[in-house]
Design a protein that fits this description.
The complex is a heterodimer of chains A (272) and B (349).
Chain A (H helix, E strand, L loop, with lengths): L5 H24 L17 E5 L42 H12 L1 H4 L20 E5 L3 E6 L5 E5 L14 E7 L2 E7 L19 E10 L2 E9 L8 E9 L13 H9 L9
Parallel strand pairs in A: 4-5
Antiparallel strand pairs in A: 1-2, 1-9, 2-3, 3-4, 5-6, 6-7, 7-8, 8-9
Chain B lengths: L1 H6 L3 H8 L9 H11 L16 E4 L19 H17 L6 H5 L2 H4 L17 E3 L10 H16 L33 E7 L2 E6 L4 E6 L16 E7 L2 E7 L15 E10 L2 E9 L8 E4 L2 E3 L14 H34 L1
Antiparallel strand pairs in B: 1-3, 1-11, 2-10, 3-4, 4-5, 6-7, 7-8, 8-9, 9-10, 9-11
The chains are: A alpha+beta (272), B alpha+beta (349).
Chain lengths: 272, 349
């Protein structure tokens, strides 16, 4: 060390500190913008939001690709994306990576979204549908257009998950400008995207949401699941407000749209 | 939990059988009036100044929508009410009698209202309908009669187990009676969570995690070609009463034979800490000769609501369809086999 120039030492220690406190910096950076307040003095995240990314196809970097269904041609072809995963790749355990690849190969039948199943977390956030945040003192509600999926974030009373579920059990608190949500109690049946990225029921998601401007939010989620990943990994993306004055969450009650797919082979008479 | 919730698929069907036998609950109407007369209740305010109706609520009740035909008064005495509840509860328990079909699937002492896990409202009314005064639906219009007849005719052509689509909406996990509007009581889990934010009231129904997001800003209705299962609701505060008007229903979830032209006006008034007086008026000139109104109190219950992932584990629908096809196959084989036997026996004669 002695032989090294001071500049290098400083740089190195900065790097070290930077690595250690990156999450803090990330969280602290965005709140350079101070959100408007609710009547009870909390950052006001109320609104109808949507991600603008192709992460719903694949959270990892990916080039554009063809549709899974030949007849849909370019309509359902996959747009490319630079990825939302920090560092690009999800740190899978080897056997889990094999499972992911198998999921991907069979995604036309295995992806829970195809059957209109609840999307889980964080997938619900960046599906190609809006969601609305309804923020009260005790609860922050995430109301998704897709499949009428709902998540209640308990702000005042934090409890353990009563049972495993699709959308998990969320406890939240405020850290300055940032809404921090800790979610556990997941089942192992949801995916992260349409590319087969998956988790076990040991999934633990910590989301950090803060306003970055009047019409955008910073969203990041740290994902931990020792059964599937070698270390925690993080996704981040902005969310955009629907600014149309009549914007509202419409009904996407997709059960109706998948019944023939799921139960069609059990019809008494073939469909005319 | 999931399994248990999923066992519920189809239970509503049973509940429908129970419903006509049921009777009453609810004193709120009367109680509320008395309370109000004594000392007007002022609900607390949310931070943004709305009357606060937030919390966990239930509209669980034995009171039927229409007054039973053998009852000719508006209110039961407390003794009569107790007897009615006892009878309804016994009816639920009966379904778990060993050896019955129901017993194979359901334990109503767990699911039913009698020993239910949730609170039950109490009301001496003999029907939810308060107007017309006879507690019954008004007469159908000619159009309403014609449509009912056509639907009945159509229903004869389709067996309930012929396909998923031929099943009831709740068996299909598409929508349930609690979702509304109007929000009617379900046979169990009749629980709601209300959360308010500036400009909105949100009502989460536990059954099928259905959500109503009601804007309070007086915005225009969407184009009438945009129709939804739960329609479009718009709300406003009239003093301490939340008034919600809903139109643009898609008509696929008819209420007692209603059409897509139905307009529902709901009124929520918190009459004390633990009770919301909920009433709704149904106006559908395509179906009924006049509008009708029902009252169905909401009472506080203990939260939280749990995730009712109905569709995701709908083994009930899958299994009944598999069973129906199997029955048909067996019947066809028996018929063919029977024919064969006869044919074989004939030469032997």
């Amino acid at each position: 060390m002695r032989g090294q120039p001071v500049g290098w030492r400083t740089w190195k220690s900065l790097l070290l500190v930077g690595t250690l406190i990156t999450p803090t910096i990330m969280a602290a950076q965005a709140p350079a913008y101070r959100a408007p307040r609710t009547a009870d003095g909390k950052p006001n995240l109320n609104g109808i939001w949507q991600a603008m990314t192709s992460a719903y196809w694949d959270v990892e970097p990916h080039a554009a690709g063809p549709s899974l269904v030949r007849e849909l041609g370019a309509i359902a072809a996959v747009p490319g994306g630079l990825g939302v995963v920090d560092g690009g790749q999800i740190p899978y355990r080897p056997e889990a990576l094999a499972r992911r690849n198998e999921n991907r190969a069979k995604r036309l039948t295995l992806d829970p979204e195809i059957k209109c199943y609840l999307p889980g977390v964080p997938r619900a956030t960046y599906m190609p549908f809006p969601f609305q945040i309804i923020q009260s003192q005790k609860y922050v509600m995430f109301l998704h257009e897709y499949a009428v999926a709902v998540r209640t974030v308990y702000m005042d009373k934090h409890t353990e998950p009563p049972a495993d579920s699709w959308m998990g059990w969320s406890n939240g608190h405020w850290e300055g400008e940032t809404l921090v949500i800790d979610t556990t109690g997941f089942n192992d049946m949801t995916w992260f995207d349409r590319a087969g990225n998956f988790h076990s029921d040991q999934l633990h998601v910590v989301e950090r949401i803060s306003a970055r401007s009047p019409e955008t939010l910073n969203y990041e989620a740290t994902i931990e699941d020792p059964q599937v990943f070698t270390k925690p990994w993080k996704i981040s993306m902005p969310l955009y407000r629907h600014v149309e004055p009549d914007a509202r969450i419409l009904e996407f009650r997709c059960v109706e749209f998948v019944e023939d797919l799921i139960y069609g082979n059990l019809r008494k008479q073939p469909k005319p | 939990m999931t399994l248990r919730l999923l066992q519920s698929i189809g239970i509503l069907t049973l509940a429908c059988l129970v419903a006509p036998i049921t009777a009453t609950a609810q004193t709120q109407a009367a109680q509320a009036k008395t309370n109000t007369a004594k000392r007007p209740y002022t609900p607390p305010r949310t931070p943004d100044g709305q009357p606060d109706i937030q919390g966990f609520w239930t509209n669980s009740t034995y009171t039927p929508l229409e007054r039973p035909k053998n009852v000719d008064k508006e209110f039961y005495t407390p003794e009569e009410y107790a007897a009615v509840v006892k009878r309804a509860a016994a009816n639920e328990t009966e379904q778990t009698t060993p050896g019955t079909t129901a017993d194979v699937h359901y334990d109503f002492t767990q699911f039913g209202l009698d020993r239910s896990q949730s609170t039950m409202t109490r009301n001496l009314r003999t029907s939810l309908i308060v107007n017309p005064e006879n507690g019954r639906l008004p007469p159908l219009t000619e159009e309403g009669k014609k449509r009912a007849a056509e639907q009945a005719e159509q229903a004869k052509k389709v067996g309930r187990w012929d396909s998923a689509e031929a099943n009831q909406l709740d068996d299909r996990c598409l929508i349930m009676g609690g979702s509304g509007p109007p929000m009617l009581n379900t046979a169990y889990n009749a629980n709601y969570q209300i959360v308010q934010a500036p400009g909105y009231v949100m009502i989460l129904t536990e059954m099928i995690h259905d959500v109503r997001i009601i804007p309070l800003d007086g915005r225009a209705l969407p184009n009438r070609n945009v129709r939804q299962w739960i329609g479009f609701s718009r709300g406003r505060w009239d003093g301490n009463t939340l008034v919600v008007e809903t139109t643009n229903l898609n008509g696929k979830n008819p209420l007692e034979g209603s059409s897509e032209n139905m307009k529902v006006t709901e009124r929520f008034t918190r009459v004390d800490k633990d009770n919301i007086q909920y009433s709704f008026t149904v106006d559908d000139p395509s179906t009924w000769s006049r509008a009708w109104t029902a009252e169905l109190p909401l009472r506080t219950t203990e939260g939280p609501l749990f995730e009712h992932a109905c569709h995701e584990g709908n083994y009930g629908l899958y299994n009944t369809l598999v069973g129906a096809r199997l029955e048909e196959k067996k019947a066809a084989e028996a018929a063919a086999g029977g024919g064969k036997d006869t044919a074989e026996r004939k030469p032997a004669k």
